[in-house]
Amino acid sequence: MAVPEPTLKALHIASNAAAERQAENISAVDVADRLGITDAFFFASAQTERQVKSIIEEIEDALREQLELKPLRREGQTEGRWVLLDYGHFVIHIQHNEERENYALDRLWSDAPQIDLPQADEPQS
């Protein structure tokens, strides 16, 4: 897998933060060999726009507090249907369930290597 250890650690933190806010279908894929502009995509979904925003806030807070990371770019925050956080080496996609089903990013990247993510509250290494 081409994803560096610091990125894996950040994805694990994001996974736990998303799970803390009851995100659904949490997953991540290694896109480094296919894209060249980022190492990984992180996906999660939620039932409401409010929950999408809550998940994004929790992820941002956790990454800032634990790794002192801030997103380079944030898109979609106002609508709360599909929010993207670009951290450079990885990109977080939190989508409303309808957008997740409609755009099917999981299917688009189904041939990319999956990244193992911890379950909620699993200790970080």
TrEMBL record:
Alphabetical UniProt keywords: Cytoplasm, Repressor, Translation regulation
Leader sequence residues = none
Similarity comment: Belongs to the Iojap/RsfS family.
Described by its record, this protein's role is as follows:
Functions as a ribosomal silencing factor. Interacts with ribosomal protein uL14 (rplN), blocking formation of intersubunit bridge B8. Prevents association of the 30S and 50S ribosomal subunits and the formation of functional ribosomes, thus repressing translation.
How does it associate, per the subunit comment?
A: Interacts with ribosomal protein uL14 (rplN).
Indicate whether Cytoplasm appears among the record's keywords.
Answer: yes
Cited HAMAP family: Iojap_RsfS
Name of this chain's protein: Ribosomal silencing factor RsfS
Q: Which domain of life is it from?
A: Bacteria
Organism lineage reads as: Bacteria, Bacillati, Actinomycetota, Actinomycetes, Micrococcales
Pfam families this protein is in?
A: RsfS
Q: Which SUPFAM superfamilies match?
A: Nucleotidyltransferase (SSF81301)
Which InterPro entries does the UniProt record give? Iojap/RsfS/C7orf30, NT_sf
Subcellular location, record wording: Cytoplasm
